[in-house]
Write a structure and sequence with these properties.
- Helices cover about 30% and strands about 30% of the residues.
- The chain has about 550 residues and is an alpha/beta fold.
- The strands form 5 sheets. It has a 7-stranded mixed sheet. Strands 10-13-12-11-17-14-18 form a 7-stranded mixed β-barrel. Strands 19-22-21-20-24-23-25 form a 7-stranded mixed sheet.
Amino acid sequence: MSDPRPSPPDALPAAVVEPPRRFRIPLVWIIPLVAALIGLFLAARTYLEQGPVITLQFRTGAGLEPGKTRIKYRDIDVGVITRVKLSNDGAHVQAEAQMAREAERLLVEDTRFWVVRPRVSGSAVSGLDTLLSGAYVGMDAGKTDASRRDFVALEDAPVIALDVPGRSFALHADNLGSVDVGTPVYFRRIPVGQVTAFRLDEQGRHLDIQVFIKAPYDRYVTVDTRFWNASGIDLRLGADGLQLNTESVSSILTGGLAFETPEGGDTEPAAADADFKVFTTRAEALKQPSASAQVWRLRFTETVRGLSVGAPVDFRGIQIGEVIAIEPDVDVDAADVGLKVDIAVFPERMRARDAGRQDMSGDAFHALVDRLVARGLRAQLRNGSLVTGQLYVALDFFPGAGKAGVSWAAKPPQLPTQRGSLDELQATLARIAGKLDRLPLDDIAAETRTAIAGLARAVERTEALMARLDGLASNEVRATVDETRQAMAEARAAVADGRRLLASDAPLQQDLRDSLQELSRAAQSLRHLADTLERHPEALLRGKPEEKP
């Protein structure tokens, strides 16, 4: 209800209250505000995406630059080096790295780090991409569950990543040879693994070599597998001739190891980290174990020059053993000098594949050997190579050999032997030359001359008698005398021919003497050749050695 009284003339007008105006942001501030909001968003996202900070310990700081050196896993950036400093003791370099959040689950106890640089080794070339992009830190995620934030970096890149399927094995060798980290391991000339590490044992007596065999080839490493050094070229010149063995061209240049399981060996897969010995050559590695070998003794009365320990024992082309010892055997009472050769024979190699599990030891095997010896089985030295003069022991059958048996009571048992074929040939030629030398050729020629002279005198008397009868006899007697005279002429011609044949300068006598002399010289030359080859087997290649004055 309004006031009815009039307002005084000097009264002030009433204030009118207006509603407040809206706050308006100037247009010039919109762009900075949007940029600030975007920056806050990016900062928040970066903060949320950041992973943990880890510490890496390096031997040197080569290639490490804060803010630039990246950490890569499978060629993806998972972190960056943020700080590099020298350790308190100055022995190494410590680096801090900011990792991505998705890499947090990879930071476990056995995770490995290393600086990737260009590296050229005998068997591999790696890190060439860093020539343009610069060095970076490589990462290999571990398999354990325990989390970790401080790591000691490797000096070199690991040969095998942790996620590669396969198994590791420990090898023991007398020396390292051409083996190095990264050296390939072969199975039937296929590269199936690599050497991952090696070190000298605490006593300094042998090398411990760690190898990794990739799946599925690791199942071929069994409890009876043999490893050997396949580095370079295995060139041997022995009783078996010239042998050249190598795994690959790479193994010739950079070295390598190889493995194989002997035929008939245990096929049970070996456990991871199982121990194996490294043999020098494949032949040595694949020999039968000494536990299955039987030692026999052979006694030879001929020279064994050219026979060495390790020479094969051959049974009709199949190697069933090897020579393990050679020593003289002197019987003072009988004044007999011989040579004892001990051989190791593996009975399993004398069994046919389809023969089943036959008993190749004990009395059954002794009975088998006795039957073979009764049929003429003997041990003989044979020349394996005329170039090298190397000998080997051959077990073969000689039907004409005399009766003999095996001395099973002796330790070791003694097997009968047969002289070598070359010695037999020399002995035969010597016997022939001796018999020819003993022939009384001069006496035979003298007696023949005497008989011819007597025959000539008889012919002369007969001719004289015929001449007397020629003047007294009739026509029939005269015809008989003529026939007799003709026969006497033929006899005289035969006597003359006999005298010419038996003359000292006759061609027959000369040819016979020449033949005997040539045969004698041939026997002497063969004997001299055999002696020379025994003393100097290399003469076939180099020629006859010069005799010293």
